[in-house]
Amino acid sequence: MNKKKLGRTGVAVSEICLGTMTWGLQNTEADGHAQMDYALERGINFFDTAEMYAVPPSAETYGKTEEIIGTWFGKSGKRDQVVLASKVAGGGRPWVRGGRGIDGPSVRQAVEGSLRRLRTDRIDLYQIHWPRRGHYHFEGSWDYNPYTQNRDEVLPNILEVLEAMGEMVKEGKILHFGLSNESAWGTMQYLRLSQELGLPRVQTIQNEYNFLRRYYDMDLAELAFHEDVGLLAYSPLAAGAISGKYLGGVLPPGTRGAIAGSAYRNNALTEPAIRAYIALAEKHGLDVCQMAIAFCLTKPFMTSVIIGATNMEQLKTNIDAADVLLNQDVLDDIQRIFMRYPRTL
Predict the structure, then answer these.
(1) 138 band by pLDDT with thresholds 50, 70 and 90
(2) Is the pLDDT of residue 139 over 60?
(3) Over residues 178-188, mean pLDDT
(4) What distance, in Å, lies between the first and last C-alpha atoms of the chain?
(5) CA distance 110 to 118
(6) Which neighbouring-strand residues pair with 272?
(7) Domain enclosing residue 48, as ranges
(8) What's the CATH code of the domain at 223?
């Protein structure tokens, strides 16, 4: 398994990261433990979680995934073999700190709660799950909407959160700091403040990246090149939509789409694109899911691709994608499809 540097740190992480968000709802504790055992055997040393997991989020499942990871650490004794990432949840959910947005005190509360559930004394990479302002990823908008935020509050909040991260680093409770669902402008503000004030530097951004959502190819790719802020790509299969299992509005029993009542990233706009990518994979004798993950790994700004699985067969297939090399014909065909379907909801 190839390794990449985590930003400008000396930490090397596997180019495939084990995502965990289904553990505690779709997957049992035993499932989660088996997945971590297998991933480590395959050379994956990077696990990603969040206080909000399992998903779909609810008061009943809040923190369950971290608890499962914690029991595995306790049973296996392999904490030092893992680079562990987690996230502080933003506002809007009443069962998480009364629904208030991220601020300095909430960072401390979230970190200390995660440490208890994870049964560890430190988190290697701690991330802001989503910013305290509107963001195109969640709004489904086709342009920037400045009215989702109070401009006078944005920078003071960024500074307050960054200072809280600095306190956690000084106390050794987190080692490095990252962002998630963030924009180029927001990332640069964190970078500027860290340089000016000697606060922790952003090392990574965890944003969605897949055939249907390639925003990172634009401004964030240039930022990654100059600032060494690599992408941790989540939903490389668009929450399973790329597999085609939701085509035609089908919600197979037991899937995330069935549990949520709708299929993420599968709609009238995305279906033609998904069908085109499936046909392309068949043309070249490839598994479409492996092709999608392997494509992510070709990007120069990629630090690690986060994969998730609800069964061991899926996990094995997704990890095997690291050994799939896409030739130029495949890459050219992918680009032609992307040019036909560059923007999907």
Answers:
(1) low
(2) no
(3) 96
(4) 33
(5) 12
(6) none
(7) 3-340
(8) 3.20.20.100
246 classed as catalytic: no
Inter-residue contact 102 to 161 (CB < 8 Å): yes
Tell me the H-state helices in the chain: 29-41, 64-76, 104-118, 136-139, 151-170, 184-197, 219-227, 256-260, 270-283, 288-297, 312-320, 328-340
On whether residue 44 sits in a domain, the answer given is yes
Amino acid code (one letter) for 193: L
Let me know: does 324 contact 254? Beta carbons within 8 Å.
Answer: no
Residue 345 lies in a domain: no
Say if residues 173 and 115 touch (Cβ distance below 8 Å). Answer: yes
- 3-class DSSP state of 342: coil
Percent of the chain with pLDDT over 90: 85
Which residues, at least 6 apart from 239, have a Cβ–Cβ distance to it below 8 Å?
Answer: 256, 257, 263, 264, 265
Choose the catalytic residue: 38, 53, 147, 277: 53
- pLDDT over threshold 70, residue 137: no
Q: Is residue 290 part of a domain?
A: yes
Question: Does residue 210 belong to any structural domain of this protein?
Answer: yes
User: Is residue 324 a contact partner of residue 290, using CB atoms and an 8 Å limit?
Assistant: yes
What pTM was computed for the model? 0.95
How many structural domains are present in the chain?
1
Cα separations in angstroms, 170 against 16, 154, 164, 195, 338: 29, 25, 10, 17, 45
